[in-house]
Amino acid sequence: MSAIELYRQCIDILRLLSHPVGVSLWNPDQFLTFGSYSIVTQMVIYFWCNFWTVFKYRHDIIHVMEVLNCAGIAFQLSVKFFIAMNNKFLIRGLLQTIENNLYERYPDRTSSEGEIVFIFARKYNILLKMLAVLYCSTLLVFALYPLYIYYSEGKLIPLFMFEVSYVDWHTVWGYLLTNFVQVVTYLMGLFGMILADGLLVLLVVHGLVYIEVFMIHLRDLAKMLQSENVGENEEKIMELWRECLVEHQTIIEYFTDIETVNGGMCLILVFTGVFAICDNLVLCALTDWYASYLFLLICFVQLTIYFAVGNAVELKSDALDISVVNFPWHLLKIDNQKEYLFLICQMQRPIILTVYGFSNLNLEAYMTILKALYQFAMMILNFLA
Known about the structure:
11 helices
C-alpha cells in the first residue's frame, strides 16, 4: 500500500468512529448531527445514573468507589467531545494541512521525503489498529466477570456497578435494561477514546513528519550553499530557502493549533486519570474485583500515550533547533541572513505541547505523576498492613 492509502485507511477508521459519538469533523455542513444529540443524551443518562447509584449506596464507601471507578474517564471524554466540537474547523484545517503539504506533495517513495512520509504512515496505521484492538478487548474482559460470578457463585450481577435509576436490575427486564444501557454507554466511551487518542497521535505524528521534511530541505540547502557551483544554482537556492521559511512558519502554526485543541484535553486527562488511578488502587487493595486492574491499565495507557507523544515533540523540536543553528547561514545573501535571524528569533518560542500551560507534556512530568501515584499506593499498603 502507498502512503496515501495507509493514511486514508486510518482516516476511514476515525471517520467511522466519529458517527456514533457525534463528532462530525468530516462534515463541514453540519455542526451537530443526530449522533451529537444522542451522545449528549447518553452523557446526561450516565451521570444521572452515577449520581443515583452513589446516593443509593452512600453508606457503602467501597461500592461507591466501584461505581465511580470509570466516572473520571467518562467526564474526560465528555469534555473532549465539547472541545472537539468547539474546535471542529481548526482540526479540519490541521488535517487539510497534512494532506496538502505531505501526501499530495510526496505521493511515492522515490524521494527521501516520500520515504519518510511512508514510514510514518505505516507506523501510525499499525499503532491505530493496535490501540483499537486494545481498547475494544476491554469490553470482552469486563463481560467475563459476571460470567465468572454466575458459574462460581450462581449469582447474576450487572456488567458495571452503576444502576439505571428507578429500575430494579434483580428482575429479568430490569437486568436486561441495565446491561443494555451499560454496554451502549461503554461502547460509546470506547469509540470516543479511540477517536480522541487516535486523532491526537495522527496530528502529532504528521507534525513530526513535517519537521523531518523541513530538516531534509535544510540539509539539501546547506549542501547547495557549500558546493562549488553556487552561482549556477542561485535560483534553486532562493527557491529552496523560501520553501524552508514557509515550512518553518507552517510547523510553528501547526503545533500552536494542536496546543490550542490539546492543552485543555491534557489538563482534564491528568486530573481525571489520577483520580481514576487512585480510586482503582484503593479497590485493588481492598477488594478482589479484577475490573479495577483493567481500569488501571486503561488509565496508564492513556497517560503514557499523551506524555509519550508530547516528549517526542520536544525531542524533535530540539533536533530542529540544532539543525537551524548548525546551518551555514553566513553563505546566504545579506537579505537572506536577515530572514535567517528571524528564524532564530522564532526559536525563542519552542515547539512543545503542554498541560494547558501548567507543565510541559513530556516524560519528566509523567515521572513526577508516577512518583506521586507510587507514594499514594505505598501509603494505602502501609495503612492496610
